[in-house]
Amino acid sequence: MSKIIYTKTDEAPALATRSFLPIVKAYVKSSGINIETKDISLAARILAVFPDFLNEDQKVSDDLAILGELAKKPEANIIKLPNISASIPQLKAAIKELQSQGFKIPNYPDEAENNTEKDIKSRYDKIKGSAVNPVLREGNSDRRAPKAVKNYAKKNPHSMGAWSSDSKTHVATMDAGDFAHNEKSVTIKDATSIKIEHTDSHGKITILKDSFPLLKGEIIDATVMSKKALISFFETQVADAKAKGVLFSLHMKGTMMKVSDPIIFGHAVKVFLKDVFAKYNNTFNKIGVDVNNGFGNLVEKLKELPEAEQKEIQAAIDAAFDKGPSIAMVNSDKGITNLHVPSDVIIDASMPAMIRTSGQMWNADGKLQDTKAVIPDSSYAGIYSATIDFCKKHGAFDPTTMGTVPNVGLMAQKAEEYGSHDKTFEIPSNGTVKVIDASGNVLLQHNVETGDIWRMCQTKDAPIQDWVKLAVTRARASETPAVFWLDENRAHDAELIKKINTYLKDHDTSGLDLRILSPIDATIFTCERLIKGEDTISVSGNVLRDYLTDLFPILEVGTSAKMLSIVPLMNGGGLFETGAGGSAPKHVQQLLEENHLRWDSLGEFLALAVSLEHFSEVNNNSKAKILGETLDDATEKLLENKKGPSRKAGELDNRGSHFYLAMYWAQELASQNKDEALKKEFTSIAKKLADNESTIIKELNDIQGNPVSIGGYYEPNEALINQVMRPSKTFNSILE
Ligand SMILES: NC(=O)C1=CN([C@@H]2O[C@H](COP(=O)(O)OP(=O)(O)OC[C@H]3O[C@@H](n4cnc5c(N)ncnc54)[C@H](OP(=O)(O)O)[C@@H]3O)[C@@H](O)[C@H]2O)C=CC1
Ligand SMILES: O=C(O)CCC(=O)C(=O)O
Ligand SMILES: [Mg+2]
User: Each residue of 143-196: pLDDT tens digit?
Assistant: First the structure.
């Protein structure tokens, strides 16, 4: 039987699933729709790669691999919730928790010293960082705010911090020596294979990556971040933040850029604590400090030293913080700085959050302050500086009047930077890095120095063709101007522009307003239209897809959780992502402390509706179409009646909002006249839900206010988590 696959993930979305999925299953059961769950949580992904360490009854299937295969087939219909892209501290915490639950998986070896450890490390490294999305994304992305969401925001605007023209907030980015300035790019004429070689100053050759195939028409590019330039940039910025009296904050994407960005993060920590590292470097090496995992790693490792030594080093650290600029805080109560954990501040969410808050971040006293946002590589930093300049000039955006910016993003088959981690290297010694094809031609070459970060990206031709088509289709469907955010002066973009100009000819573009603008010009063009209430589609590469689908939604509708995020898979299936944001770790904290889940599942409602529509088309199932349409109507009603989760314990939360969705959905099904059986079934359910509304809401709200336990963070106890997420006996019995 055809089915819809529902993913079980992590943190807030996984909690929400425990409440929402039973509703969905109950509602679609009579329509011949099978819902199957696949577990791609961090915990399950760890267990899946270590069967040889587990008892028979502890082994789990590799659901991610199964879904990765499915995504390439026409029958794929996958609802994908956000999942943890684990930084090393998160990975280690998950390992520890699983071990405490009796799973005898190995520790993560920081330094793999023998073959066994190398094998273990390589298995973990496949799980690390953004390891799920790139596997499932066998298509390009189409993300937009549905009309109902946009209209709701216009009538009920979220808070927007005012912007003043004398704000000292700014973006600091490199003007030489970074990835942007060193990029070289070529388009591959005929299929070939390539290898990546490092040659040191004595002519000794090391293979960085063995021969792998390239397809005809692929664009490849390579570039290098100079360690020297990076360190000198950080030194300048630390001093400048101090001089200007603004917070120092670093914004990276350590999850998707899981090889390069932790290294860059580490350099920032070392520069910020320069005197400490100068004095205690030997000690740090001895205890295995690795600040690529953040300053928090140093804090943890210090505990291994004798108390007197700890005290001495702590005093040196305190002195360094005193001497340096103030630093942006993730949690000022707990003393967690922006440099503690690479996964705490992730650029796509962190920069828009700052822009929404008058360009300010929290300082150590828990007060908002102007900020220097440090984004070392200048490839995309300009979009944030242009937005900030725009706000300084025009004031904050006004959600009641502003237009919207849907995005068509190139991401299929690990396109561009987000597929580069297996071709990213921290350079061992001075020399050159060459990309050499099967005939021995050198396609790309850089001079490099010890510690530089060199990387290569691939962008396949078929995804580019599909992306151009998707852009034209979207521009036509919504009759909106579309801008390709590409810089003709950047090597990779120049190659891409050639292809766009070719492939646009395959489509009827008459009457469409299609342009190609550099990211900075595109930002200004788009923002100028936005404040006039005009819409502009952004057509972008993979990184800007990620950045723009948090930036504009957060400004327009307060969060990217309310986005419709569709991935039409290139082989005909559908991947329906639930919103454009992440897994909101802060929401789990609140649930555990006060049994209130402020997570909004709106993205999930929207995704399910399009998944049902897709299901109905593929399987000729008219009931699925009705279920999808009525779900959309119910979602609109939910918005109108303001039944989204509140942020405060004791008030309607995620669970209560699911109840209302269920009630409205049943009412819509009861009032439609296209399918008699559905009408009959849901008339009775709708009545029972409405009759018991106050009892159910009381049951859902009264339990809030006290701490709860779910028996694990990464691998919660099923019975406990279900109990917590389904606390209304009345509601549960109606669903049964
Ligand atoms: N598609 C995916 O799988 C993605 C996964 N991630 C992963 O998610 C984790 C956290 O990432 P982070 O960058 O902090 O971004 P998040 O999007 O998880 O969180 C940022 C903030 O946005 C708000 N928010 C996000 N989603 C919702 C929602 N559904 N309802 C209400 N508010 C919401 C919350 O604000 P507030 O706290 O003010 O309520 C939240 O703290 C990381 O592990 C990251 O790798 C990140 C992006 C995409
Ligand atoms: O896969 C990830 O780590 C994050 C993905 C993301 O942020 C996005 O697609 O918007
Ligand atoms: Mg994102």
Answer: 999 999 999 999 999 999 999 999 999 999 999 999 999 999 999 999 999 999
Counting from 1 in the atom list of ligand 2, the atom nearest the Cα of 580 is: 10
Residues 247 and 359 in one domain: yes
How far, in Å, is the centroid of ligand 3 from the Cα of 543?
9
**Residues 312, 345 within the same domain:** yes
Q: State the amino acid at position 193 in one-letter form.
A: S
| Chain segment 356-369, per-residue pLDDT in tens | 999 999 999 999 99
- Residue 385 pLDDT: 98
> How much is the average pLDDT of 590-619?
98
Q: Is residue 604 scored above 70 in pLDDT?
A: yes
User: Is 300 inside a domain boundary?
Assistant: yes
Q: Is 84 in the pocket of ligand 1 (CB under 6 A)?
A: yes
Pocket test for ligand 1, best of 559, 598, 647 (most atoms within 8 A of CB): 559
Domain match, 233 and 378 both: yes
For the chain, what is the largest distance between any 2 Cα atoms, rounded to a whole number of angstroms? 82
Residues 303 and 238 in one domain: yes
Residues 306 and 355 in one domain: yes
Share of the chain above pLDDT 90, in %: 99
Helices 542-557 & 147-155 angle (0-180, nearest 10): 40
Determine the average pLDDT of the residues in 14-37.
97
Residue of 356, 323, 320, 326 whose CA lies nearest to 338: 326
- Nearest atom of ligand 2 to the alpha carbon of 545: 10
CA of 560 to the centre of ligand 1 (A): 9
Residue ending a domain, choose from 374, 392, 410:
392
Residue 272 covered by a domain: yes
Query: Looking at beta carbons, which pairs linking 207-214 to residues 24 or more positions away fall under 8 Å?
Result: 208/425, 208/433, 209/422, 209/423, 211/438, 214/188, 214/437, 214/458
Segment 113-136 mean pLDDT: 96
Query: Do 322 and 446 have their domain in common?
Result: no
Concatenate the DSSP letters of all residues of 23-83 into one string: HHHHHHGGGT-EEEEEE-SHHHHHHHH-GGGS-GGG----HHHHHHHHTTSTT-EEEE---
Ligand 2 pocket by C-beta < 6 Å: which residues?
85, 130, 133, 255-256, 348, 546, 549, 580
Among 133, 552, 559, residue to substitute to test ligand 2 (most atoms within 8 Å of Cβ): 133
Q: What is the number of the ligand 1 atom nearest to the C-alpha of 577?
A: 1
pLDDT reported for residue 1: 58
**Minimal-distance CA residue to ligand 2 atom 10:** 546
Distance, CA 579 to ligand 1 centroid (Å)?
10
pLDDT beyond 70 at 377: yes
Boundary (domain end) residue, out of 436, 458, 480: 458
Can you give the pTM of this predicted structure? 0.97
Find the 664 Cα to ligand 2 centroid distance in Å: 31
Q: What is the ipTM of this complex?
A: 0.98
In a domain? residue 424: yes
> What pLDDT score does 412 carry?
97
The DSSP letter of residue 569 is B
Residue 306, pLDDT > 80, answer yes
| Cβ of 420 less than 6 Å from ligand 1 | no
Q: Domain check: are 254 and 320 in the same one?
A: yes
Are residue 232 and residue 329 in the same domain, yes or no? yes
Find the radius of gyration of the CA atoms of the chain.
26
Decide whether any atom of ligand 1 lies within 6 Å of the 343 Cβ.
yes
Q: How do residues 79-89 score in pLDDT, each as one tens digit? A: 999 999 999 99
Task: Count the domains in the chain.
Answer: 2
**How much is the pLDDT for 580?**
94
pLDDT at 239 over 80: yes
Atom of ligand 1 nearest to the CA of 16: 29
What is the CATH classification number for the domain harbouring 217? Answer: 2.60.40
Domain encompassing residue 369: 170-177+226-392
The C-alpha angle with vertex 171 and arms to 167 and 176, in degrees rounded to 5, equals 145
Evaluate whether residue 351 is within a structural domain: yes
Ligand 3 centre and the CA of 394: distance in Å? Answer: 26
